């Protein structure tokens, strides 16, 4: 797919799925910025893997909830790799905690919104102007079926993942005539990250209600992210594409 030489920023790119997005985009010819929000060791390790593929990479400290840090990070990426052409908003907080709304603290709610939703606003705010100016850009927001179906104990997480879809459609409209597309990928469950932390009996119950009766391999969603980031996806915008092995089908 023709994205050779483009610069991609993958937030949370040292996480389980983010790393696979970063490597997949690198394999398609992109130079990649991977962020870490507290320590940079994991982001550095992924950057090394990318360099081993013959691409340029930068590990950048960026707490996405902090606009100043995002601004500084995007500037650093510009200096090291060039301006961001592809933005994958993958960073998220608090995927596994199950806390009912009645028991959720306002502080936890605020933090989840700040990272998962305001975080995407912050990165888009810093990357979109350059994309519009250059007349080419791809934004892929990582949502979840929690956002489209809800989830017990996931009120803040579900609200942010639903919010990302509204944000996606609006950014898509604002970039539509200027070469910038914005899409959301709505994930089901994938082996990696938070799903490993779910108790085994819960994992089994979740998998039983999926039409494909299996959790996804991270590469199966990375392929969709890479397509949406590509030149070939030029006429796809404002979509929320579910990649879930049929989680929303009537399964029995
Ligand atoms: N694994 C799944 O089954 C699944 C399902 C649906 C959606 N998702 C979504 O996929 C994405 C990645 O999830 P994962 O399973 O790889 O989890 P993960 O915990 O491995 O990755 C999350 C990443 O976000 C980063 N992050 C957290 N807070 C941050 C902050 N303030 N600033 C910057 N980065 C921050 C973490 O450092 C980590 O790298 C998330 O958006 C998640 O909601 C995952």
Notes on the structure:
There is one protein chain. The chain is of the alpha/beta class and 252 residues long. It has a single domain, classed as Rossmann fold, CATH 3.40.50.720. It has helices at 16-27, 41-52, 67-80, 106-134, 145-149, 155-175, 194-197, 200-208, 218-228, and strands at residues 7-10, 31-36, 57-61, 86-89, 137-144, 180-187, 240-243. A 7-stranded parallel β-sheet has the order 3-2-1-4-5-6-7, sandwiched between helices. Helix 1 crosses helix 9 (218-228). The longest helix has 29 residues, at 106-134. The N and C termini lie far apart (38 Å). The model has no long low-confidence stretch (mean pLDDT 95). It binds nicotinamide-adenine-dinucleotide. Nicotinamide-adenine-dinucleotide is lined by residues 11-12, 14-18, 35, 37, 62-65, 90-93, 95, 115, 119, 142, 144, 187, 189-190, 192-195.
Describe the structure in brief.
This protein has 252 residues and is α/β, with parallel strands linked by helices.
Structure keywords:
252 residues, globular, seven-stranded parallel β-sheet, 15% strand, binds nicotinamide-adenine-dinucleotide, alpha/beta, Rossmann fold
pLDDT < 50 stretches: none
Bound molecules: nicotinamide-adenine-dinucleotide
Overall average residue pLDDT: 95
Look up the CATH topology: Rossmann fold
CATH architecture: 3-Layer(aba) Sandwich
* Sheet/helix structural class: alpha/beta
The Cα radius of gyration reads 17 Å
Number of domains: 1
Based on CA inertia axes, which overall geometry fits? globular
Order of neighbouring strands in the sheet with most strands:
3-2-1-4-5-6-7
Write down the secondary-structure element order. Answer: EHEHEHEHEHHEHHHE
- Indicate the percent of residues in helices: 40-55%
Number of strands: 7
How far from one another are the termini?
38 Å
Number of helices: 9
Percent in strands: 15-25%
**CATH homologous superfamily grouping:** NAD(P)-binding Rossmann-like Domain
CATH class: Alpha Beta
Give the biggest sheet: 7 strands, parallel
